[in-house]
Amino acid sequence: MKLLSIHRLSVSGFKLPVLPVILAAIFPAILAVQILASTLLHSARAEEAPVPLIFDTDMGNDCDDALALAMIHALQSRKECELLAVTITKDHELAAPFVDCLNTFYGRGNIPIGVCRNSGKTPDAGKYNQVAKITDEGKLRFEHDLLSGNNAPTAVEVLRRTLAQAQDASVVVVQVGFSTNLANLLASPADAIHPLSGRELFGKKVKLVSIMAGAFAPIPNDQGVLGEHREYNVAEDIPSIKKLVELCDVPILWSGFEIGLNLTYPHQSILQDYRYVPHHPVAEAYIAYIPPPHDRPTWDLTSVLAAVRPDRGYFEISKPGTVTITDDAISRFAENPQGKHRYLILKPAMAERTREALVQLSSQPPNYHGSSQLKPIIGR
Questions:
Q1: With pLDDT > 70 as the criterion, what percentage of the chain qualifies?
Q2: Nearest CA-CA partner of 91 in 64, 129, 53, 54
Q3: What predicted TM-score, i.e. pTM, was given to this entire model?
Q4: What is the rounded CA–CA span in Å between residue 182 and residue 248?
Q5: Domains in the chain, please, with CATH?
Q6: Are 91 and 58 in contact (CB under 8 A)?
Q7: Whole-angstrom Cα distance, residue 142 to residue 161?
Q8: 252-255 and 341-345 as β-strands: parallel, antiparallel, unpaired?
Q9: Among 60, 127, 139, 230, which residue's CB has the most CB atoms within a 10 Å radius?
């Protein structure tokens, strides 16, 4: 609306400004409209259904997986998502118990967990999955009942069961590890769980894959020279990510290496924001991985944030196109109006706001009461 020019009106010999009179009349109406719009927007958001989410992770290979899972629980507590299942691509029996202890800490120990077996992908224990085994006076520090991944169902079984029960085109899959599990699912045949093949079931039930993989900007090497980057999640299982790109019929949103690299997690948060309990599995995992002072990149967290809050302006999105993976683990993007792939772009002006969202969500306390693990810390 253009502002009116100030004119003066003569009334009984006096000159009165017209604009203040007009503004005095219209401002209450404008304010009422703004309040109504704000109320309607808030009501619309409140009525939005939580995003049904599957989290596929290589838990134990980096501490950002633990932070990302904590974020998911915070978002679920805010009714923004619903964690349907967690599947694991790290082939070690302690990865599932750590996931279970984290889920249990947040009051959701019944979430299905699936594992890959005999894949040979990172078969070591990792630096922090042992947190699930810590005992104090003969009792587990962090309560959970899944003590070995050997006792968990396979990832493909969990994925097929979870998708079979979901509404069509509703599920978002956040993949922050290797593509092993999703590739195996896409190649799976019809079975007693569901009459569709894995590819058909995936295409029917999933609306988006938000994946932390690849690199879509030059990355400095050890000598500081910019160039193409062999991103870890791609390099660890090249055949699987190639199969995912080939067989996935739903859109894929890529968070490249450069995104998390430029959003480091402040170690001060680990030392201060998790002290609402004497022991916190996320903080202990971060410290076990690389002790502070160390600001770890937030790679996996960015895929969660983009999946659950796609319209909040944390990132910009590339034009549509197609990602291809080379035999030496380089990811390349080619614009194509019909392409189903896009990648995240982080503008420097948005970095601090985005980082703050990651920190606040991952450090948010559980929203349930009565747990012995949530006793207040006196004097801290």
A1: 84
A2: 129
A3: 0.86
A4: 9
A5: 51-374 (3.90.245.10)
A6: no
A7: 28
A8: parallel
A9: 60
